[in-house]
Design a protein that fits this description.
binds (2R,3S,4R,5S)-2-(hydroxymethyl)piperidine-3,4,5-triol; 716 residues; alpha+beta; eight-stranded parallel β-sheet; 20% helix
């Protein structure tokens, strides 16, 4: 990518007129968002699209709609902002005050536009942070009560964007537990479509905070204009897509206002979460690569570091283990050649030992009869075996059968005068309460202090917020959803500050937590409890739309053991590779294969985890799928191919018979080799120009069920 030369246009204001002398430009290398202050002093979106060569020409474009539409004025569609003022007036009229634009230390540019409602002195700041070379823009807002009395915030979107295209196609990623992120595309016509969640402690279960809107025609992997957006918020979100009577599309993104009215005290400011988007003119694949590059460079905790392979005991033992079994597994982690052993749920609680999911959550002391020598004996064993040690926790939650619940019912989110109902037999602790924040921080802090060898936490969260009532919020119950998430971030801030080296997996009963604010703290996430490799092909395809491979924990398990171990491993190699089985679950040859696969993965890691991902053939399109990763700077590549369930005598679809690669240098020559074969012997395919591989391609699929292959494409 070419370096971006930053031109900072801090517009001069026309004295007294509150009108910016020129357009407010938010630009990346390829995208421009142009805002304009009209004669009435209000802020309009003039343009959002491909950057024009000549910036002077934006002037010729008529203003579209008001940039951040407010309730109670002339517009008849969904507003971005709704404030009920202290005097009961529910309307807001925002006019321009000033704007600034400045280069940030990380190379991005932050533009801040300040607006006010002159009648009430409330202030609204709109922020746009542009990352030039990755074409990502973050936008969020800040609302300040300038009145003498409290006001009520009813709607407070992070962002509002306007589009004008002949047609719009929305791709949403919805599903359920163990069936996350299924892509569904639908046309948007007049009216409103909302994607929202009300799960409280997580963003995702039924629908993920990822969307794509194709403008004009449905975008393919390589062609078409497509907006891809997500909200950085580990809680209730809402995306509103509304096509008006003139065929214009408005996209409003932010916290779900559902049961979330906020009282803002005099002088208080509310800051919304970041809406993060890219606008690609080269289809969905480019949009994904924009997100991947941006995340690794700017957002993801330890985005520039590699990730550890691991052996997890969850599916190997569930709750049924003791010290001896775990020590054996730690030895197996060493024998396999992974970097870490991860001890999952079931190691804690004594009065109500955690022998199933009905009790013990909240009592974070080792169960004495399972682990008489504590976690220390295990970290010691891990050290002896030369592997790191990771530990599962779920510190935001409590089982009613626990000492914590008996002692601190006031810390639990539960309705005072109703029977409790449970999601996975548990309740959520009230993170809006600073005492609870201290307690949750203390869970990690105590474990790390006692066992400094813990290198990794898998932080689970198996219940949405249920029985919604906070003892702490008292008369402000509608603050709970937001304050819960903010409380969580306060805890995570403290952990990150005190233990900067710690790696953590974000997990929420599968892929319930998968958002970019969470990933400022976590290094990776668990996409699904469904580890059937065929299902994972779809799930990884879905999450790869915005998340890079290094964030996607992918484990080889015994699910769908009709699929060969190689198939299961190859699927997992496309993310952050782990194993969740006992070596006894495999025969000798399979174990040997896995050891070789881990060695192969370690060699390929820089390409898979840091490279450019190209989704070549979608699992949705038929019986085969393929994804390829190309090392940065014109480097070597690796191609994964999967034949899922080709039908009897089916011929490979013509478009897939020759698999065409992407992202290579057409002028360079590459050696293509099939590696990672079960016989341990590499197979030379041949030497070809990048041009040939991308234009003609190679016959890399087979007609055999559940078959996978891995090809290296090395530049000569
Ligand atoms: C749900 C997670 O998604 C699983 O991986 C596992 O950690 C269980 N919780 C443990 O209770």
């Amino acid at each position: 990518m070419k370096p971006f030369i930053l031109t900072l246009a801090v517009s001069a204001m026309i004295p007294g007129a509150n009108i910016a002398a020129e357009e407010i430009m938010v630009t990346t290398n390829n995208t421009a968002l142009v805002l304009d202050v009209a004669d009435n002093g209000r802020l309009y979106q003039k343009y959002l699209g491909k950057k024009l060569r000549n910036a002077a020409e934006y002037k010729a474009i008529p203003n579209a709609a008001e940039a951040y539409i407010t309730h109670g004025m002339e517009d008849y569609y969904e507003p971005a902002l709704h404030i009920n003022h202290a005097d009961g007036n529910p309307s807001t009229l925002l006019t321009y005050v000033s704007h600034t634009a400045g280069a940030q230390p990380d190379g991005s540019t932050l533009t801040t536009v300040t607006l006010t409602d002159k009648e009430y002195s409330d202030r609204v700041k709109l922020f746009y942070q542009a990352y030039p070379e990755t074409d990502i823009i973050k936008s969020w807002s800040e609302i300040t009560n300038g009145e003498k009395k409290p006001v009520e915030l009813e709607k407070y979107a992070s962002s509002m964007l306007h589009f004008n295209a002949p047609a719009y196609y929305l791709t949403q990623y919805n599903g359920d537990w163990a069936s996350e992120v299924n892509a569904t595309e639908l046309p948007l016509s007049f009216g409103k479509k909302e994607l929202d969640t009300k799960l409280g402690a997580r963003a995702n279960m039924f629908v993920s905070p990822i969307f794509q809107v194709s403008l004009g025609e449905s975008a393919t992997e390589d062609a078409g204009d497509v907006l891809v957006g997500t909200l950085g918020w580990t809680g209730n979100f809402r995306f509103t897509f509304e096509v008006d009577h003139q065929g214009a599309l408005r996209v409003i993104s932010g916290i779900n206002p559902y049961f979330s009215k906020r009282t803002l005290a005099k002088g208080e400011t509310f800051t919304t979460p970041e809406f993060i988007f890219t606008l690609s003119n080269e289809g969905r694949g480019k949009a994904s690569r924009n997100f991947h590059d941006w995340a690794r460079k700017y957002q993801l905790n330890k985005g520039d570091e590699t990730r550890m392979t691991l052996l997890n005991n969850w599916e190997a033992t569930y709750f049924d283990f003791d010290e001896e079994k775990l020590k054996k597994l730690i030895g197996e982690a060493r024998d396999l050649g992974v970097d870490m052993f991860l001890l999952d749920d079931g190691w804690f609680a004594n009065k109500y030992p955690r022998k199933g999911d009905t009790q013990g959550l909240g009592d974070w002391e080792e169960t004495a009869d399972k682990l008489p020598n504590g976690i220390g004996a295990l970290t010691e064993e891990a050290r002896r075996c030369g592997v790191k040690f990771g530990l599962w926790i779920e510190p935001e939650m409590v089982n009613p059968r626990s000492e914590l619940y008996e002692q601190h019912k006031d810390w639990v989110i539960t309705l005072p005068n109703r029977d409790e109902y449970y999601f996975r037999n548990q309740l959520v602790l009230d993170l809006s309460n600073p005492e609870v924040q201290d307690y949750v921080f203390g869970v990690v802090d105590k474990l790390k202090t006692k066992y400094p060898d813990i290198a990794f936490f898998k932080w689970d969260c198996n219940s949405p917020i249920t029985n919604i009532y906070s003892n702490y919020e008292k008369m402000n119950q509608s603050h709970l959803y937001v304050d819960y998430v903010r409380g969580l971030y306060k805890v995570l801030d403290r952990i990150k500050a005190k233990y900067p080296g710690l790696m953590m997996m974000m997990c929420s009963g599968g892929g319930g937590r998968s958002d970019y604010e969470g990933l400022k703290y976590f290094t990776e996430f668990w996409p699904s409890d469904n580890t059937d490799p065929v299902e994972r092909l779809y799930i990884q395809w879905g999450f790869s739309q915005i998340f890079p491979a290094k964030t996607l924990c992918a484990h080889v398990t015994t699910w769908n053991s009709s699929a060969p171990v190689k198939f299961r491993t190859n699927v997992a190699m496309m993310g952050k590779l782990g194993f969740d089985l006992k070596l006894d679950d495999m025969n000798k040859d399979e174990v040997e294969y896995c050891k070789r696969a881990i060695r192969n993965y370690n060699v390929l890691k820089p390409i898979i985890l840091e490279g450019d991902q190209y989704r070549l053939v979608s699992p949705y399109s038929g019986e085969h799928t393929s994804t390829m990763y190309v090392g940065k700077n014109d480097g070597d590549a690796v191609v994964f191919t999967f034949d899922i369930y080709p039908r009897y005598k089916q011929s490979i679809h013509r478009s897939e018979a020759q698999l065409r690669m992407k992202g290579l240098n057409p002028a360079a020559t590459y050696r293509v080799t099939e590696i990672d074969r079960t016989d341990g012997k590499d197979r030379q395919i041949g030497e070809y120009s990048g041009d040939y591989l991308m234009t003609v391609g190679l016959p890399l699929f087979t007609l055999n069920r559940l078959t996978s292959r891995v090809f290296t494409v090395n530049k000569l």
